[in-house]
Each structure stands twice: as C-alpha cells, then as structure tokens.
Design brief:
Elements: E1 31-36, H1 53-60, E2 65-67, E3 74-76, E4 84-85, E5 91-95, H2 110-121, H3 139-143, E6 153-156, E7 160-164, H4 172-176, H5 186-192, E8 206-212, E9 216-221, E10 235-240, H6 244-252, E11 258-259, H7 265-273, E12 281-285, E13 288-294, H8 304-313, H9 316-322, E14 327-329, H10 352-361, E15 368-375, H11 380-392, E16 396-403, H12 405-412, E17 420-422, E18 428-429, H13 461-471, H14 479-496, E19 499-510, E20 515-516, H15 519-522, E21 535-536
Parallel strand pairs: 1-10, 1-11, 15-16, 15-17
Antiparallel strand pairs: 2-3, 4-5, 5-7, 6-7, 8-9, 9-10, 12-19, 13-17, 13-18, 13-19, 14-19, 20-21
Helix pairs in contact: 8-10, 13-14
C-alpha cells in the first residue's frame, strides 16, 4: 500500500508491542481528538489509498470480510459467515447479514455489493484499486467497454451473492477485505454528485457529522450499528493542519489524544527517554519496505549491471543510523513479517569497489549523471543526501530533487520522468498479508502504467506468468509450494536489481493518558488505528 507514512511515525522504540494503553475494560462514552498535519483528501473507499485515509474510512464503511482484531485471520463482517468456494476454486458464494442498515436507514443488500465492486472497476471512478478486481469474470471486458455489466458478479435475492473468477486466486478473500470493497449505497453516491468522498454514507460504526476543510472532521457513534457493542466512543474529532511539534505540545496539555503523525523528529529522542511518557508510547514492526527505485526505462539504469552497482554502492547501515537505528536493514524486497519472506536472502553487500568494477564493465568507468527524487519531509532529504554521497563515491553524480510528496509520486508514475526515487515516507506497506501484494501492484507488468506504483517501470512477462500460476495454487497443501514460488520470484527481481531495498521501519504511536486501547487497537497491521475499539478512561 502506498501509505504516505511520515518517517516519525515509523520508528523503533525499546518498548514491547504488547503494551496496552490501559488495562481497563473498555467503557461506552466519551470522545477523543486525533491530530494530523495534512487534511484528509477523501473518504470514498474506492479512491482513498494511504495510511491516513484507510483507518478513517473504516469508521464509516464496512466490507464483507475483515481481520480479527490486531491480526491477519479473516473473519466475516457484513457477511453472515465465511463464503463457500466451488471445487474448481472459481466461485465464492456469500450470504449477507440481514438487517444491516446504511446511515441513511436503508437496508444493505447484495445488489449494493455488486454495485460497489462494479463502481471500483468502472474507469470513470479512477479507482487505484481497480486492478485488484480485474480477475473477476467479465471484469476486464467491462473495463474495456465491451460489456455493460460484470458477468462474474451476481446477486441472488436480498442476501445472496456469488463472485466468479476467471482463474483461481489464493489471495482473493484478502482482496475482498480491502477498503476498496467496502460497500457503498448507489443513491448516496448519485446524490453527492461527484463529491461522495466528502459526503460519505456507509454502514460503519461512525457517521461523519461535520467536515471543515483544512481544520477538522467530526464523527459520531452510529447508534444503529449492527455490532451492538461497538463502537465504544461517542465521538472522534480529526484535527488537521497541526504541525507535529504543535500537536505534541497539545497532547501534553490534554488537548490531543493521539498523534497521527507520530512524535516529531526534533522531540523524538527527548520524548522516548523521558520516563513520564513511557506508558504513552507503543511500537511494532511494520510490514513494509523503504526502497530506492531504479527506472529501468532510463539509460544507463536500463543496464542491469548499473542497477546492481547502485545496490552495492549504498551503505544501508548508515541510513539506519541517520534515523537513530529505528529500522531493520532490508536484505530483500519482502519484509520479515510477510509470508514468503526468505530468511536466507543476503542481498547485495556494501561493496563500493565491486560497484566501480561493474560500472566499468558497463562502459561507465567515468560514472554518469542522474537525478534522485525525494519528498521534502524530514528526514527524507537527509537520507537522500546520504545516498547521493554513496553514489558519488563510485562516480555516480546524482542531483537531488526534493519536492512535495504529490509531485514526487506524479514524477515516479510518469514513464521516463524520474530515474531514481527514494520511497522514504512512501514505503510500500502491506494491503493484505500475502506476498502477491508486494508483486502485482508495484512490480508487475500490469502496474507498469502511467500513474501506477511500479516506479522502476519494470515488466517481465515470464515473472507475471509465474506469479499468476502461483496464485492459482489454491488446493489444500499447496500453500508452502506457493510461498516458495514467490520466494523465487523475488529472488529473480533481486538479481535484476530494480530496487535497492533499504530498510523495514518500525511504527510507533503516542497517545494521551485518558485514551484506552491495546497495541492491537493502535498498531493494527491492516487498519493502523481501529477507532471502533478505542475508549477513554472514566
């Protein structure tokens, strides 16, 4: 997931992730205030796709499936039970919970799910999640304008739903638990007239009561929520436009309960060493990878020897030191907590001399000039400068373009525009716990498109075929073989050196004394923050 995570939010502390904000049993009532520097862009689940949007969308919307609190085990949500699957692994049959109401009072039914997924697939929606659902039968024909409906989506009565795939997909239920598949009411989308992202209506535990652009969003508890015990809070206010340093001071004064952007870098060391705040800070290793992407469509980065040389030229340990050791050096593309991670992977050793030899073999003994993009949020410019120095030591002269995050993303998603991109602050974080999520959205041929997240613009159709074959391994007993195949796929990518995997960050949060919640609530591996399970001391 391209969660634009501030570096301050993803840093390691010496505290155990099993800490709890409070040992109290959650009680109903009260409210909290959460701070962010940037405004929320949209609450349309078909559109919003970053760490800030997703947990807030989860307040308003629900999907057929979700994960057990703080974990990676799927369980039914809007679905009354887990779906049945046909013997050929192609058709999933769901039964919806009866009586679930949208915030407008209308009952949620199977036709709403069909509409929701069709809307995500519709090119007019411009959903970044479209490609996740093109494996549904007839979806590509619909996307291409050759069909008016998606043949693999069928409602049966009010509560019956079948989804048929073109081919088996071992990760399909994970995909159905993504925010993109959160169910929306057609009439409210139409009523919003293109502004559903600011006028969201779902079936979730909270309703949006007020949104003042650039200032705040206010949410109230949904009294008709189908999980009778949830949520605990009566309200949540998201304050935006607060500089992280100002937000931190507000938290110490009791005006803010949760730092959405984390502890500001300037106060970080002081805060984590202060015993007064020890009970207010939680941390957990993130399932993500920060990397330097190398554009394979730009000379001389099109030469694999040059890309390998760059991998050998960068001192990853030094980069981790710059952020005070608050990350784990990456040896491969997958993070350690992702299924399919190769614990035996060694990656490229820091070897400037070897890098110079490879450059000479590529006819570049005098080096070359290139451009390195980075977003301008601290500490990313400092990290980019360290990379620049390492590259200079082997003769690669990289000028740095430090720009707003949106500008960097636009350049990276434009073919030939950005030779190198430091992903710091935009580390790829799991959408769901399956290695396919680190391949199809960011390293496959289908993602090497304008506006996509395949920043190396790398396309290997043979690897796509292998990944597709692996995803069809859905029979009992094939899981180990499937994960081994993904290990081999990422090993092949590593040989092609389309990334320089730098480190895996460790996420932490800081909260007020009154907030009650476990690490599973505040450090959820999928949703980041599970607002529905938070409460306050009475």
């Amino acid at each position: 997931m391209p969660r634009a995570v501030p570096a301050a939010l993803l840093m390691s502390l010496s505290l155990a992730a099993t800490q709890t904000a409070s040992a109290q049993t959650p009680a109903r009532g009260g409210s909290i205030v959460v701070s962010y520097k940037d405004d929320v862009t949209t609450l349309d689940p078909a559109i919003g796709y970053d760490y800030q949007n997703w947990p807030i969308e989860k307040m308003v919307f629900d999907g057929l499936l979700d994960y057990a609190p703080g974990g990676t085990t799927l369980q039914p949500r809007l679905a009354a039970k887990m779906p049945t699957v046909s013997k050929d692994g192609l058709t999933y049959t769901f039964t919806l919970r009866p009586g679930v109401k949208f915030h407008n009072g209308r009952e949620l039914v199977a036709d709403d799910v069909v509409y929701t997924l069709t809307r995500v697939l519709d090119p007019k929606t411009k959903s970044p999640g479209q490609s996740f659902y093109t494996g549904i039968k007839g979806a590509q024909a619909f996307v291409d304008g050759k069909a008016k409906t998606v043949s693999g989506l069928k409602a049966s009565g009010k509560y019956g739903l079948s989804i048929t795939l073109e081919a088996p997909n071992a990760a399909f239920l994970n995909i159905m638990a993504m925010n993109f598949a959160y169910v929306v009411p057609k009439e409210e989308v139409a009523k919003a007239g293109g502004d559903f992202g600011h006028k969201p209506v779902g079936s979730g535990p909270f309703t949006l009561s007020k949104w003042v652009s650039g200032q705040s969003l206010e949410f109230k508890r949904n009294p008709a929520y189908f999980y009778n015990s949830l949520p605990y809070l009566d309200g949540v206010t998201i304050k935006v436009g607060l500089d992280p340093s100002v937000a931190f001071l507000s938290l110490t004064r009791g005006e803010v309960d949760l730092l959405g952007d984390g502890i500001p870098p300037a106060q970080f060391l002081q805060v984590v060493k202060d015993p007064r705040y020890r009970a207010n800070i939680l941390n957990k290793t993130s399932v993500n990878t920060s990397y330097l992407s190398l554009n394979t469509q730009v000379k001389p980065l099109s030469d694999v020897r040059v890309r390998q040389a760059i991998n050998m030229a960068i001192d990853k340990t030094k980069l981790v030191r710059i952020i005070n050791g608050r990350a784990q050096v990456a040896k491969t593309y997958l993070p350690p907590l992702m299924p399919g991670y190769d614990a035996g992977a060694k990656g490229y050793a820091f070897d400037p001399a070897g890098a110079r030899k490879l450059l000479a073999a590529a006819g570049l003994s005098k080096g070359f000039d290139t451009v390195l993009y980075t977003n301008s949020t601290d500490p990313n410019p400092r990290l980019a400068q360290s990379i620049q120095q390492d590259l200079a030591a082997v003769g690669i002269r990289a000028s740095i373009k430090s720009q707003a995050q949106s500008t960097v993303i636009e350049a990276a998603g434009t073919k030939g525009a950005a030779p190198m991109v430091w992903s710091g602050g935009m580390a790829w974080t799991q959408d769901y716990p399956d290695p396919s999520d680190f391949y199809w959205p960011i390293l496959s041929c289908r993602s090497a498109v304008s506006g996509g997240w395949n920043w190396p613009w790398y396309c290997d159709k043979a690897l796509d075929a292998r990944a597709d074959k692996a995803d069809r391994m859905v029979a009992p007993g094939q899981q180990a073989a499937r994960l081994n195949e993904y290990k081999a796929i990422f090993a092949a990518l590593d040989k092609q050196a389309v990334w320089v995997p730098i480190y895996h960050e460790v996420r932490h949060v800081m909260h007020s004394d009154k907030l009650v919640g476990t690490a599973a609530d505040l450090l959820d591996p999928i949703h980041f923050i599970s607002y529905e399970r938070l409460s306050v001391k009475k």
